[in-house]
């Protein structure tokens, strides 16, 4: 249900149009002149206004600026029996969504309303992203040689307005951050930026989400919808996990890159789009081509300027800076003062970091949640590291001794971790249970079992 304000000097139009829109499920208010319109607009805060061009002694176009002052995101549709090209051009310049002549068909008007509200939603998403981008400036932490070289490459390609970029790297290395860095430093930085996680889209919806669709294109397509590529027109679209889309969708994406045009699902009409594409993947696309999972022609179109994001294990010199950065961020978030000792950073440097910077961020955040104000030591890190450290490494490296008792060994390891968790939490059972990812009740039973009460 949407809030709609009708501004028309004819009582019959206000009544019949209002009833018709209510039948479609909208919440409707009406006004006959500018004084009423300003009052209702301020109190009702409509999402869409249907405005008559001729309001007796008033011109509807003169109301637009004042209406937007109190409701800047409202969509406006002009209704008039006096439509002409000059009025239409003036209306468009004032930001009117569409222009419809009387007499009109209520179904046609409803179709235009749906398109206007879809555009409002899309614009709001883009606006929210822009606000988020202003609050969280794109910032790579690191001074290592590999990071400096990577940033130089990103800055060079960012300034090339239309060059397609392919960002490659393991999960958690910062591919999305790299894409935002390119966008933020490009000539399109003041235009829309649309992020799409291709792996998160259901396979049967990828095509319609990217390219949009027309009414009746498939079951459930009861209205027209613009796609994400079209929404990014004049700006940039970031296609994360590009290796996850089907070869059929790859073919359509290739046509967009080659012709700068797209067709919505169910349509034969080509729509011009001016959009820069940044793609990212953690897959080996060359191998995917050999397996028939990725189109070779699309790969070469995307791979115009490849950028490799180094894994954390290859930029270990940046580890201290990253740890201190995340401690500063999460300490401020949770109102604490937590620092890292040299021994903590040294212990972290011996870890292989399979989850890369994302894993480091998660570990530091969890430590900040569970720790009181203090300096972290090497044993604090051991509690949270996975992969090649801790138990996995012990199991890989040991020889099975004579007289080995598995239950005793498991009990010894379990007791050791519980003891460490209790020390880290200051003997707070609830916090220790969180550290060990177990219920408080389960931990209390084990404390009793090992005599650690």
From TrEMBL:
Domain Sigma-54 factor interaction: 140-369
Keyword Nucleotide-binding: yes
Superkingdom as given in the UniProt entry: Bacteria
A single MF term (Gene Ontology): ATP binding
A Pfam family assignment: Response_reg
GO process annotations (BP): phosphorelay signal transduction system; regulation of DNA-templated transcription
Residues the record lists as 4-aspartylphosphate modifications: 52
Family matches, as CDD domains: AAA
This protein's UniProt keywords: ATP-binding, DNA-binding, Nucleotide-binding, Phosphoprotein, Transcription, Transcription regulation
PANTHER family: TRANSCRIPTIONAL REGULATORY PROTEIN (PTHR32071)
Protein name in UniProt: DNA-binding transcriptional response regulator, NtrC family, contains REC, AAA-type ATPase, and a Fis-type DNA-binding domains
Organism phylogeny: Bacteria, Bacillati, Bacillota, Tissierellia, Dethiosulfatibacter
